[in-house]
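Run log, item B.
One chain of 382 residues. Sequence copied directly from the ordering sheet:
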Amino acid sequence: MSRENAFQGLRCTECHAIYPKGQILQKCSKCNGPLDTIINPEILSEISREDLYRTPSMWKYQAFLPVGEKDKIVSAGEGDTPLRKLSSFQGNVWVKDETKNPTGTFKDRGASLAVTALSALGVKDIVLSSEGNAGCSFALYSHIADMGCQVFLPRQANPAKVELSRKLGASVTLVDGTMADAGRRVEPVSKTEGSYNASTFVTPYRHDGKGTMALEICQQLQWRAPDFVVYPVGGGVGLVGMWKMFSILEKIGWVKKRPRFVAVQPAGCAPVVKAYNSKRDDLEEWKNPETIAFGLRIPKPLAGKWILRCLRESDGIALTVTDEEIHKSMGQVLKDEGLLLEPSSAAAIAALPHLYGEKMIDRSAEVVLMATGSGLKTVEQF
């Protein structure tokens, strides 16, 4: 079956309004909620898993993604990253090594899908807010697609991320304050004719790209899901995208169960952890966020209700780690495993001692840590 048939439109995650595909859309026009793509699992159930071994990138899962069969794929070889067993931790621990992506981060998956989908819709210029990594990713993929790209970054962003975004052709504006302040600067620019706001959860075309990590993990584990996925939460795009794809795999019978998610945030900016453990339905903005993990310095993710729903559906766990624990984990995993991770990524490693020591999970459980980004762009923080 063609993926054009599997992708059937867009649905608001809050008021459930449905929009047909083929329109240039951002958030819900009725309630301003984030939009999700509608992917028909009945059609996907007719696909042979054997067909997935032909393409060495995330686009082997083309049928699961919201693009047309004849759309031109904008790819730099993203995805198909290693799933490595970690020898330095007691327990059954794997790491999904997203540092192997073209710009060294899992953001490349979302950017590849978004630029592919938006290019097919006729979008010529994109604008977005980013802590740094997404700016690099969208700069790369928009350059490949011959699209304009403007990126608004907090002034505190890592210098290498700022410079790489510029070198890849994006127009970069540095903003005083947090990601929320950068996002506010994007709004008026995105309303100019021909511009499209590709920021986190403003566009519905990023989370499914990151959801391919779930598909890869299950394929690499011989079509089973792990017991736990430990995920460092910033904007939460990957968490909701992966949960969606795990759910689709269960519906079509490719896996028998879904994993439980562990959401990890730094103690200096933990709006998701606070809301989840307080049993709230939405997030409150975190005042004065401070952490060395700039990618997790998101005071109020736009899809807070959606993130919390996914965590609850997975019977998830939410916990914080300190900057000191993050920094220690960066050095430990570099020495013991040869993994060069940025602070935002190392937060997942730092969570392990808490999960085992406080008996949140058993050492016999199969655990996958998400190594979301390389430390090559954050060497000044080692």
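Observations after the first pass:
- Residues 130 and 153 are 5 Å apart (CA to CA).
- The longest strand covers residues 148-154.
Flagged for discussion on Thursday.
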